[in-house]
Specification:
The protein is an alpha+beta fold and 379 residues long. The chain folds into 3 domains: 89 residues, RNA polymerase II/Efflux pump adaptor protein, barrel-sandwich hybrid domain (OB fold (Dihydrolipoamide Acetyltransferase, E2P), Beta Barrel); 59 residues, no CATH class; 200 residues, 2-Layer Sandwich (Chloramphenicol Acetyltransferase), CATH 3.30.559.10. It contains 10 helices and 20 strands. Strands 9, 12, 15, 17, 18, 19 and 20 form a 7-stranded mixed β-sheet that branches. The chain has a 5-stranded mixed β-sheet with strand order 7-2-4-5-16. A 4-stranded antiparallel β-sheet has the order 1-8-6-3. The longest helix is centred in the middle third of the chain and has 22 residues. 36% of the residues are buried. Its EC number is 2.3.1.-. Forms a 24-polypeptide structural core with octahedral symmetry. Pfam families: 2-oxoacid_dh, Biotin_lipoyl, E3_binding. InterPro entries: 2-oxoA_DH_lipoyl-BS, 2-oxoacid_DH_actylTfrase, 2-oxoacid_DH_E2_comp, Biotin_lipoyl, CAT-like_dom_sf, E3-bd_dom_sf, PSBD, Single_hybrid_motif.
C-alpha cells in the first residue's frame, strides 16, 4: 500500500485544490492514467497515477485545498491475479474526463451539478461557466458570490496577483541561489526559412511548420552534445537528465506564463513536434495539461518574438540549470560570400548555471544550434 500525495507542479507551488476525482475506491488504474483534476495558480492540471494498482481510499473531498506532499489517496500495488480479475469484473471502464474550465468545475461543485449531461461551447467542446448559466442550472449572481466566498482567488484580478506572487518567489530564489552567466549570438535563419517555405508550399495550413518548431528541434538536438545544460541542480549536486524535455514557455492570454514539457523533443520529427506544440498551447490555455507535462521539463525555452522583443535574457527556473531565449526574427543586412545581402536573422541567448557549466560549454552549445539551423534538412 502506498500513499498518493498532492504533487508539486512547480518549484513555487505550495498547495492545490482537488477539483475532481476521476476514480473511486476499487478502481484499477495504470501508470500514467488520469485519476484527478488539480487546480493550481497556473490552471487546472490532470493528475496522473505514477504507479499501477487499485485505488484503496480517497482521503480528500473535491473542492479541498491541500498542501503539497499531503496524502490525498492510497493505492494498493501488490495486485494478485484474482484481485485484478475481480476488479475488472466489478468495476466498469473509467470514463473519459469531462472537458471543462476551472471556473465551470467550481460552479458545478458548489451547485451540485453533474457536468456529464452538458454540451460545452468552449474550445473542443469544453464546458465553460456560460454553459451552466445559459441552461439555468445556476443563477449567475448567487453562484458567482458563492464561488468568490469559498475561493476568492477565482476572480481574474486575484488569480493574476497570485500568479505574479508565485513567479516572483521562484525568480527571486533563482537570482539568490544561482550564479547566472549569459551568452548571445546572432544566427542567419535564411537557410531555415527557404527550406521551410519549400516544405510548406503544398501542405494544408494545419500541417504547415512554423519557425518555432525548427528552433526548438535545433535546441533539443544541440543538447544531446551538451548534457551539462540539461538537468537539475539539487542538494549541492548536478543530476543530468537522461531525456530531453523542453519546457515551452506559453503566455496565458492576458496574464501569467507556464512551461509545459515537450517530451523527447530531440527524437520527434518536425511535423510531430509542431503538432505537440500546437496541442500543448491549446490545452494550456483551456486548462487541460497533464501532471507529467508540468513537472518533466529539463530545460526551458522562452521566446518573445511575437511581442517584438529582439533579445531575451531569461532567468533560470530552479532546479533547472539553463534557459534558452529566442528573439524576434528580422530582415537585416548580412555579409554572405563577401557581399551585403538582406537575410532573416535572430538573436539566440543562453542563461546558464555557473556551478554546472562555463562560458566555453555554453558557447559550444550556441554554435551547435547555429550549425544545425544552417542545414535544416537534417532536423
Amino acid at each position: 500500500m502506498i500513499e498518493l500525495t498532492m504533487p508539486s507542479f512547480s518549484a513555487d507551488m505550495e498547495s492545490g485544490i482537488l477539483t475532481e476525482w476521476l476514480v473511486k475506491p476499487g478502481d484499477a488504474v495504470k501508470k500514467g492514467e488520469i485519476i484527478a483534476v488539480i487546480e493550481t495558480q497556473k490552471g487546472a492540471i490532470d493528475m496522473e497515477a505514477f504507479q499501477s494498482g487499485i485505488i484503496h481510499t480517497l482521503r480528500v473531498e473535491p473542492g479541498s485545498s491541500v498542501p503539497v506532499g499531503h496524502p490525498i489517496a492510497t493505492l494498493e500495488t501488490e495486485i494478485t491475479a484474482d484481485s485484478t480479475a475481480d476488479s475488472a469484473a466489478q468495476v466498469p471502464p473509467q470514463t473519459t474526463r469531462i472537458k471543462a474550465s476551472p471556473l465551470a468545475r467550481q460552479l458545478a461543485l458548489h451547485n451540485h451539478i453533474d457536468l456529464a449531461g452538458l454540451n460545452g461551447s468552449g474550445p473542443e467542446g469544453a464546458i465553460v461557466a456560460h454553459d451552466l448559466e445559459s441552461q439555468k442550472f445556476i443563477d449567475k449572481t448567487p453562484a458567482t458570490e458563492t464561488l468568490n466566498h469559498t475561493k476568492p482567488q477565482a476572480t481574474g484580478r486575484d488569480e493574476q496577483q497570485m500568479m505574479r506572487r508565485a513567479i516572483a518567489s521562484a525568480m527571486s530564489r533563482s537570482k539568490r541561489e544561482i550564479p547566472h552567466y549569459y551568452l548571445a549570438t546572432t544566427i542567419d535563419l535564411q537557410p531555415a526559412l527557404e527550406w521551410m517555405t519549400h516544405y510548406n508550399h503544398d501542405k494544408p495550413p494545419e500541417a504547415q511548420l512554423l519557425m518555432t518548431a525548427l528552433l526548438h528541434k535545433a535546441v533539443a538536438l544541440a543538447l544531446t552534445r551538451n548534457p551539462e545544460l540539461n538537468g537539475f541542480y539539487t542538494q549541492g549536486h548536478f543530476q543530468p537528465a537522461s531525456e530531453i524535455h523542453l519546457g515551452m514557455a506559453i503566455s496565458m492570454r492576458n496574464w501569467g506564463l507556464i512551461t509545459p514539457a515537450l517530451h523527447h523533443a530531440d527524437q520527434q520529427s518536425l511535423p510531430d513536434l509542431m503538432q505537440q506544440m500546437r496541442d500543448l498551447t491549446l490545452r494550456a490555455r483551456r486548462g487541460g495539461l497533464r501532471s507529467s507535462e508540468m513537472t518533466d521539463a529539463t530545460i526551458t525555452v522562452s521566446g518573445m518574438g511575437d511581442r517584438g522583443v529582439e533579445t531575451l535574457f531569461g532567468i533560470i527556473y530552479p532546479p533547472q540549470v539553463a534557459i534558452v531565449g529566442l528573439g524576434k526574427p528580422m530582415l537585416q543586412p548580412w555579409v554572405v560570400d563577401g557581399k551585403v545581402r538582406p537575410r532573416l536573422l535572430f538573436n539566440l541567448t543562453l542563461a546558464a548555471d555557473h556551478r554546472v557549466s562555463d562560458g566555453h560549454q555554453g558557447g559550444r552549445f550556441l554554435g551547435k544550434v547555429n550549425k544545425l539551423l544552417q542545414n535544416p534538412a537534417g532536423l
